Amino acid sequence: MKPLPDTVQRVAAQLQALGHPHPPQMLDDAARTARQAADALDIEVGQVAKSIIFRRKGDDAAVLVIASGDRRVDERKVEALVGKIGRADAEFVKARTGFSIGGVAPLAHAMPGVVLIDRELLRFEVLWAAAGHPHAVFPLSPADLERLTGAPLADVTESVTESPAVP
User: Fold this and answer.
1) Which residues 6+ apart lie within 8 Å of 46 measured at CB?
2) Contact 145, 18 (CB under 8 A)
3) CB 3.0 to 4.6 Å from 129: which of 1, 49, 67, 83, for a disulfide?
4) Alpha carbon distance, N-terminus to C-terminus of the chain
5) How do residues 70-122 score in pLDDT, each as one tens digit?
6) Contacts of residue 9, Cβ cutoff 8 Å, sequence gap at least 6
7) What is the DSSP letter of 157?
8) Are 114 and 63 within 8 A, CB to CB?
């Protein structure tokens, strides 16, 4: 068995230090998107706790929004909580988190930043989050996510409007 990538080892070490009972798992296929992760794990897309990084304009801090995989982050709602934000490019994400886009874990970041957790994740008992690599994930509950990150729950996603059923 080959050793875990360094970034996954960093996440595993922090999970262990924080007393989380589930270590990262390596998937055969990449899980860079919520859909890919859900398909690989045979779960609902909403159970994927996706990590979206923004760049806060006032101080250049990383803003991590951990959102349900079936929801879109509402940037206006995030700005109301943390101030003006902009898109973060791959270089910014890697420098601030230590992870590449598609594998950003909700913890073990290279530099501390602002973290918000999407309330929509409370719909599920079990979530899956990236573990520092596009092929690595780990399971956790919404309560675990709050405990591991120390982040508050917030309304940060677009409202879901009911669409009529199509026959």
Assistant:
1) 68, 69, 70, 71, 120, 121, 123, 124
2) no
3) 49
4) 49
5) 999 999 999 999 999 999 999 999 999 999 999 999 999 999 999 999 999 99
6) 3
7) B
8) yes
